[in-house]
């Protein structure tokens, strides 16, 4: 490289070159010294050469150069090249032609230096313009809240500044460099603060949105369950109509394409009517469920190189939210807040599932599982605590239903809900104990409110509601209205209580993880019928406050309740999804048998008491009359009138088997009373006319029994003959007293055939009171002769 030396006037140039310019010898020597010094220092000799040729004296320069070169090693080779150079010397232009060339060379060198300076300046300007453009772009993106692009621009500035430290030509503006060095971290800090604020706002919004999402998701599960139950109801109806085909078990689930976005869209429709906006200006749930702010924050932190830090921050904040959601307030009862409580949990994990699938690694499956395990443990604890405090079956059922819906909802998203179902199963017995207590109270109230009169139904809907609803009808033909039912209002009321018990029990047992729960339902149903219904009716019957008509109505009700129990059994089987042909295999006896027998016994006891009242009229009977009373005694006529009235009413409400058993017991009691008349202490003696009168009374009762033959014509279990057999003891006694051969009683064969119902002691006691003027054997029973004693002795011996 040649060093540039500024141009000077000829005199100064000649002096600077050390060339002779007409001066003295001292001046020449000084010039030679300067030339030698320049040569030794390796300075540019151009000025010396130009001055020598400009003054026309190059010989002195050449001589000085030879003198200087004589002492240098490279000179000899150059000397050998001199002959080749001399011809060129002869061809050089004259001095006047060489001067423009040197001027052009100087101009070229100056222009090249200027170009280099301009190129460097332009490069620096372009660099500054690029940096300022990036800064302007970053400012524009920041103004548009586009943090990612702003950070990209800032990163480009940062990369340019990082290259500046290694660049041999650094940024020429130190102030700009310092300003950018401060601005880059400031912009990054601002972006982090800004996105952190957006993330915090999203955390608040998503908490409110989670509750709405959970409510909508659980509502969808409830709707799917309702569709399933409706279909099963149609199948039950088809089965009741004797259509062929097994009872299916279709399974409904949420729509396969209904994910969190669909739930959010559905929540958006319901959020407009919700007043709880969480402090926001009532944005829709779809906006609340927007995960863009979360993903944006995650992306920005990735851009800032803080990905792991943000993941940890997100997980910690969600844990805090979940912990806060589990704070059960004591201000509102859990029954009123349990839906929001579980909906919040459902929405929380629906959101987490969505983020797990679309968050690009923001959360991991182990992290979500850990959150779910903590949530399940807390929910189990809350349920255990709340269930232990509840004393109302309906409250337990409401919470159980919502928890089961929660399980159905979250199981769809892959969460394990078995611990929640185990808690429900654990409190099964407590629920049914509370339900039994409620039903026992309702049964007692229903029986206490009943007047035990036949129920009047004026409209068809009443018949459907009270008869057809429980399959109590005995015919498929719709009756004419107004319709008087054979039962009282207690029967449909009890049916409603039992049906509600069955449905509540099935509701608690179903959707709880246990598939075959019909045996459990059947066991609890038996407990209800035996411990509540049967025991309450027994207390009513044993209370002693019922009359004959009321006792008859209770007995009629029990016959209808037998059909109702068949309905309860079928209803439980159908609700449990068990085909009736399978359920029939485990069917048991009538569970209300004790109260049914007690009701019949009460009716019979009251009728016997009434008969006893009529038999008090037997005090007017003349036992030693000369002639028998025409048409029988008064007491018998009164009893017949009463029994005919009773039968006319009872045959409309009492089943024929029940009526037959009651009448059989009444007539047997009449027979006992007739025999008791002869044994009564008030009857000291009686004669044949009295026996004839009693025979007429007995014939009235037998005629009454025979008249019932048409009523029991369709009965396979009873007949009029069987009713007459109820009075066989009285008939055999009267026949013996009216017999011409009373001694035949002593014949075992005849006695077994004709007098097998008579008691020996009673016959002897009665024979002592019998007085007759004839010569028959009974006329001697009352005498004190030997024959009488022998006869009595024979009777006692037999």
Automatic annotation (TrEMBL):
This is Exocyst complex component. Residues 7-19 have a biased composition (Low complexity). Pfam families: EXOC6_Sec15_N, Sec15_C. Residues 228-242 have a biased composition (Basic and acidic residues). GO terms for biological process: acceptance of pollen; Golgi to plasma membrane transport; intracellular protein transport; pollen germination; pollen tube growth; vesicle tethering involved in exocytosis. Signal peptide: none annotated. It comes from Ananas comosus var. bracteatus. Residues 419-769 form the Exocyst complex subunit EXOC6/Sec15 C-terminal domain. Component of the exocyst complex involved in the docking of exocytic vesicles with fusion sites on the plasma membrane during regulated or polarized secretion. Involved in polarized cell growth and organ morphogenesis. During cytokinesis, involved in cell plate initiation, cell plate maturation and formation of new primary cell wall. Residues 1-34, 228-249 are annotated as: Disordered.
């Amino acid at each position: 490289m040649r060093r540039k030396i500024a141009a000077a006037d000829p005199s100064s140039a000649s002096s600077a070159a050390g060339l002779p310019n007409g001066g003295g010898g001292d001046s020449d020597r000084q010039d030679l010294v300067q030339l030698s010094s320049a040569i030794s220092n390796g300075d540019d000799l151009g000025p010396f050469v130009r001055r020598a040729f400009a003054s026309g004296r190059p010989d002195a320069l050449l001589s000085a150069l030879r003198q200087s070169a004589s002492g240098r090693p490279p000179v000899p080779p150059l000397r050998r090249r001199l002959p080749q150079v001399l011809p060129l010397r002869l061809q050089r232009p004259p001095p006047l032609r060489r001067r423009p060339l040197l001027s052009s060379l100087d101009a070229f060198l100056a222009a090249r230096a200027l170009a280099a300076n301009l190129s460097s300046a332009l490069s620096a300007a372009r660099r500054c313009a690029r940096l300022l453009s990036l800064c302007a772009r970053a400012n524009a993106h920041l103004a548009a809240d586009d943090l990612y692009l702003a950070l990209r621009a800032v990163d480009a500035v940062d990369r340019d500044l990082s290259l500046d430290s290694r660049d041999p030509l650094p940024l020429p503006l130190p102030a700009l460099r310092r300003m950018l060095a401060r601005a880059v971290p400031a912009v990054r800090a601002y972006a982090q603060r800004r996105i952190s604020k957006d993330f915090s706002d999203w955390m608040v919004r998503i908490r409110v949105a989670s509750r709405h999402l959970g409510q909508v998701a659980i509502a969808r599960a409830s709707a799917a369950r309702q569709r399933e139950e409706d279909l099963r109801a149609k199948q039950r109806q088809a089965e009741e109509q004797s259509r062929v085909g097994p009872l299916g078990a279709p399974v409904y689930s949420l729509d396969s394409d209904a994910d969190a976005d669909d739930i959010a869209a559905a929540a958006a429709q319901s959020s407009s009517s919700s007043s709880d906006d969480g402090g926001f200006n009532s944005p829709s749930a779809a906006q609340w469920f927007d995960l863009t702010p979360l993903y944006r924050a995650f992306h920005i932190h990735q851009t800032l190189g803080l990905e792991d830090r943000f993941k940890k921050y997100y997980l910690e904040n969600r844990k805090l939210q979940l912990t806060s959601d589990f704070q059960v307030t004591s201000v509102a009862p859990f029954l009123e807040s349990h839906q929001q409580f579980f909906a919040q949990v459902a929405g929380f994990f629906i959101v987490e599932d969505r983020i797990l699938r679309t968050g690009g690694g923001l959360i991991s499956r182990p992290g979500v599982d850990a959150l779910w395990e903590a949530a399940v443990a807390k929910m189990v604890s809350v349920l255990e605590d709340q269930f232990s405090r509840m004393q109302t079956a309906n409250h337990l059922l409401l919470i159980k239903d919502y928890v089961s819906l929660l399980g159905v909802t979250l199981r769809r998203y892959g969460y394990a809900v078995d611990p929640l179902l185990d808690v429900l199963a654990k409190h099964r017995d407590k629920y049914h104990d509370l339900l039994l207590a409620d039903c026992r109270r309702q049964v007692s109230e229903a029986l206490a409110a009943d007047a035990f009169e036949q129920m009047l139904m004026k409209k068809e809907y009443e018949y459907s509601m009270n008869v057809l609803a429980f399959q109590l009808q005995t015919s498929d033909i719709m009756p004419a209205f107004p319709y008087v039912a054979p039962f009282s209002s207690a029967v449909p009321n009890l049916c409603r209580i039992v049906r509600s018990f069955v449905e509540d029990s099935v509701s608690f047992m179903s959707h709880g993880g246990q598939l075959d729960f019909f045996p459990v339902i059947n066991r609890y149903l038996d407990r209800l019928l035996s411990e509540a219904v049967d025991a309450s009716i027994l207390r009513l019957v044993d209370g002693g406050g019922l009359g004959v008509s009321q006792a008859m109505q209770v007995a009629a009700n029990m016959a209808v309740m037998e059909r109702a129990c068949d309905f309860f059994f079928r209803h439980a089987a159908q609700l449990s999804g068990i085909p009736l042909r399978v359920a029939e295999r485990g069917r048991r006896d009538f569970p209300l048998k004790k109260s049914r027998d007690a009701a019949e016994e009460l009716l019979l006891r009251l009728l016997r008491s009434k008969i006893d009242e009529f038999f008090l009229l037997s005090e007017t009977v003349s036992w030693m009359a000369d002639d028998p009373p025409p048409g029988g005694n008064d007491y018998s006529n009164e009893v017949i009138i009463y029994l005919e009235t009773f039968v006319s009413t009872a045959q409309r409400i009492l089943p024929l088997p029940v009526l037959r058993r009651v009448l059989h017991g009444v007539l047997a009691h009449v027979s006992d009373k007739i025999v008791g008349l002869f044994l009564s202490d008030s009857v000291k003696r009686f004669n044949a006319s009295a026996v004839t009168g009693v025979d007429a009374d007995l014939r009235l009762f037998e005629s009454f029994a025979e008249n019932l033959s048409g009523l029991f014509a369709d009965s396979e279990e009873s007949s009029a003959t069987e009713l007459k057999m109820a009075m066989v003891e009285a008939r055999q006694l009267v026949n013996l007293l009216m017999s011409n051969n009373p001694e035949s009683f002593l014949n075992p064969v005849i006695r077994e055939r004709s007098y097998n119902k008579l008691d020996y002691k009673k016959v002897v006691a009665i024979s002592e009171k019998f007085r007759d003027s004839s010569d028959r054997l009974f006329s001697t029973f009352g005498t004190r002769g030997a024959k009488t004693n022998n006869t009595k002795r024979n009777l006692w011996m037999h």
